[in-house]
Amino acid sequence: MIVEFAPAKINLTLNVTGRRDDGYHLIESLVVFADFGDLLHLQLSDAPLSLGYEGPFADALAREEPAWETLIRRAVQMTGCSASGGRILVDKHIPVAAGLGGGTADAAAVLRAAQTLSAVSRNTEQLAQIGLALGADVPACVHSEPLIMRGVGEKITRLQDWPDLPAVLVNARVPTETRAVFERYRAEGRPFSAPVFDQVSASSFEEALDVVGAGTNDLIEAAIATAPDAADTLNALSASPGARLVRMSGSGATCFALYETTAAAAAAAETLSSARSEWWVRACVLRGVRAPV
Prior knowledge:
With 293 residues, this protein is an alpha+beta fold. The protein is built from 10 helices and 11 strands.
């Protein structure tokens, strides 16, 4: 049995910098990972692949089973793992279709787990490049550490210095489709953004806040047009005491606020949960760079 953690992915910034001839958009995104996520229990073997689900978002994932099963089966096969199937149980805590990388985080976790059983030795960078065929966010999720993601997701620059950031995540439980948001963005005809970051480094909350504030999320307007409830979550977070920076993650519709302390984040989450019980609200820590063990 292999147990693999798949942390939630948060795009602190997302600037659209261009578009390839094949239609894929080029981006520059500052990405971090939360201290919560999905937990995958994998028993890989030659038995037919079977999937199980538990946790608060198990039902939502089960409704996506055909596409999710294909993704997971491909992830196992791409590592060259000798097993072709087995049993995978997902303890699902990341909302589905919420801009938090839930499906790609799970695929990346399967890649990491299957790699341990593969006859081919690969480092993290090599495994991340393999994962690109599964989705643009998979390389970043393979790393699951603070980084800058460029291109269509294949160019990864890991940060050498970045602090933990207390945060609150809010989602109105309205799923968004990444493709639909990008199509809306393209229809708006907005000019592409210039790259923002060169070398990124921060050792304190204030330094990190300055870095994040230098970027934006170019998809906010398109996401709100697709899922108007995102505007309500942004407004609610902006009004919460202690919120220092408020933004949407990725293509949405989950939004986040950064706070100076975990206590401030916890208090804000409690207030928001009481006021809007129908929303998903989560206080967490967006993990910084960890010292080598």
